[in-house]
Design a protein that fits this description.
InterPro entries: ABC_transporter_permease (IPR051393), MetI-like (IPR000515), MetI-like_sf (IPR035906). One of its GO terms (biological process) is transmembrane transport. Keywords: Cell membrane, Membrane, Transmembrane, Transmembrane helix, Transport. This protein is mainly α and 294 residues long. It has a single domain (51-293), classed as MetI-like (MetI-like fold, Orthogonal Bundle), CATH 1.10.3720.10. Helix content is 74%, strand content 0%. It contains 13 helices and no strands. The model has no long low-confidence stretch (mean pLDDT 85).
C-alpha cells in the first residue's frame, strides 16, 4: 500500500516537475553553458572559450561599476526596509482594535503590487529637477534644488528610495504574520514585571522574530540584486536614454546581449548574479539552522 501511494504521488507531481525543470532548471544550465562560449546571437557558430568571459569580467570597468551600484542599491534597500518594516508592523499589530488597521495595511501593501513602470514614472516626476515637487519643497524651505536624476550618486539614492517604497509593504505583511504568532503571555508577563512597550519590543519581539527577519532580509537582498525596471525608467540621461546614469547588473546583461551582441559575455554576468543569489540563500539556511540548534 505504501509503495502504491508513493508511485501515485510521484506520477501526480511528475508533470509539474517536468514543467518546472524545463522552465527553471534548463535555462540555468543553458546559461552556464553559454557563459563558456563566444556567441553573437546572429550566427550558429559558438566557439568554446572556457573561462575567458569571466576573466574579462574581472577587468571590465563597466561590469565592476554595475556590480558596485547593484550591491549598494541592494544593501541600501535592506538597511532601510527591515528596520522600518519591523517598526511599522509592531505599530499596526498593537493597534488591532483600531478601525483603521485595514486601511493602514492596504496603504502600505499597495506599492508592492503596483506595476513597476507606472510607479517609476510617478517617482521620476517627483525627482524631476525642474518641475518635481521634491525640489519645490526644498526651495520652499530655503534649500537649493538638486539634479536628482542626473547625478550618479543622487540617482542611486533615488533608486534606493523607490525600491524601499515598493519592498516595504511585503516586509510589513510578513512581519505582521510573525507578530500574530507570538504568544501574548510573554507580553503580559513583561507588563507585570514593569517592562515598557519599547522594552518588550526589543527584548521579546525582535529576538523571536529573527527567523522572519532572516527570510525577509534574503528576499529583499535577492530582489535588490535583480533591480531592473527602476533603474531603466528612473535613471535617464539628458537624451532620454534609459539606465545610463546608473548601471546595474541586469541592465548591463541586456545591453551586452541585445545591443553589443555578446550573449556569452552576458551569460557570464548572469552566472555571477546567480552565484550571488546562491550565496545569500546558503547564508540564510545556515543562519536558520544555527538558530534552530540554539
Amino acid at each position: 500500500m505504501q509503495r502504491k501511494k508513493w508511485i501515485f504521488a510521484t506520477l501526480a507531481i511528475l508533470p509539474t516537475l517536468v514543467i518546472f525543470a524545463y522552465v527553471r532548471i534548463y535555462p540555468i544550465g543553458d546559461t552556464l553553458r553559454l557563459s563558456l562560449h563566444k556567441w553573437d546571437i546572429l550566427s550558429k557558430n559558438k566557439p568554446f572559450i572556457g573561462l575567458a568571459n569571466f576573466e574579462e569580467l574581472m577587468g571590465d570597468p563597466l561590469f565592476l561599476d554595475a556590480f558596485v551600484n547593484t550591491t549598494v542599491i541592494a544593501f541600501g534597500v535592506l538597511f532601510i526596509t527591515i528596520p522600518l518594516a519591523l517598526v511599522l508592523a509592531a505599530l499596526i499589530h498593537h493597534r488591532t482594535r483600531s478601525h483603521f488597521v485595514g486601511f493602514y495595511e492596504t496603504s502600505i501593501f499597495i506599492p508592492h503590487i503596483v506595476s513597476l513602470v507606472p510607479a517609476a514614472m510617478a517617482w521620476k516626476w517627483i525627482f524631476d529637477a525642474r518641475l518635481g515637487p521634491l525640489n519645490a519643497l526644498l526651495t520652499t524651505f530655503g534649500f537649493s534644488p538638486k539634479a536628482w536624476l542626473f547625478d550618479p550618486v543622487l540617482s542611486v539614492i533615488c533608486i534606493i528610495v523607490l525600491c524601499s517604497w515598493q519592498a516595504l509593504g511585503y516586509a510589513v505583511m510578513i512581519y505582521l504574520v510573525g507578530f500574530k504568532s507570538l504568544p501574548t503571555s510573554l507580553y503580559e508577563a513583561a507588563k507585570l514585571d514593569g517592562a515598557s512597550g519599547p522594552q518588550s519590543f526589543w527584548r521579546i519581539s525582535v529576538p523571536l522574530l529573527k527567523p522572519i527577519t532572516l527570510y525577509v532580509s534574503v528576499v529583499t537582498l535577492v530582489s535588490g540584486f535583480n533591480v531592473y525596471a527602476q533603474a531603466f525608467v528612473l535613471a535617464s540621461d539628458s537624451q532620454g536614454a534609459p539606465g545610463r546614469q546608473v548601471r546595474v547588473l541586469v541592465l548591463d546583461m541586456l545591453e551586452n546581449s541585445f545591443r553589443n551582441y555578446r550573449v556569452g559575455y552576458a551569460a557570464s554576468e548572469a552566472v555571477v548574479l546567480l552565484a550571488i543569489v546562491l550565496v545569500l540563500t546558503l547564508i540564510q539556511f545556515r543562519l536558520l539552522r544555527e538558530k534552530g540548534r540554539a
